[in-house]
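Q: Got a minute? One more chain.
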Amino acid sequence: YHSVIPLVVTQLEGDIPKIRQSIIIGSVIPLLMFLAWNAVILGCVTPDIIQLSPGNERIFDPLKILRNGASGEWFAMLLSIFSEFAIVTSFIGITYGLTDFFKDISLITKSEISRLPLYSLVLLPPLSLGTFNPTIFFQALEYTGTFSISILAGIMPALMSWKQSQKPEFFHSNHQTLVPGGKITLIFIIMGGIFLIGRQFQYITIYKF
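A: Always. Here it is, folded:
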């Protein structure tokens, strides 16, 4: 949901308490759903299907068991519906975030994009790629998920906040209260992003080559 945060900040007109409340509530609700999802999935199956990972490790896949109807056809159907909702909500968030991003770019270039070209710019490229190669999403996610998310949602925002804190006009502004702990917190965020990227490189090196 990181790509939606700039849109939330704009719509709430920079009101820090409302922004913080929106992010916390918007994170707690899916967290509770995620925990409930894990409890239901793991509580409905027994480890009778074992798969091997690229490193020849034994993997228990409860989701695959339930999709095959181990707990009944109705539950398998509900599982599919829930999965579709997860995809749709992610799709909506990404679409809103990207449209807001391109709107900002158009304002910087002193030209405003109308609605149809704007949504075409957001939706047509992935639609075209997905049409020609239906599995490209999974292939791209395997290699770029960790790298892009760690950089775009971790390292870059921390560096931007660090750069802003060095400007006199931002030093005593309310923007600084959004990052408790100041530069120490930013350092931990940057180190966390670098750590995740390093782990992904290690995985690719060991299991892919």
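A: The first strand starts at residue 50 and ends at 52.
Q: Perfect, thanks.
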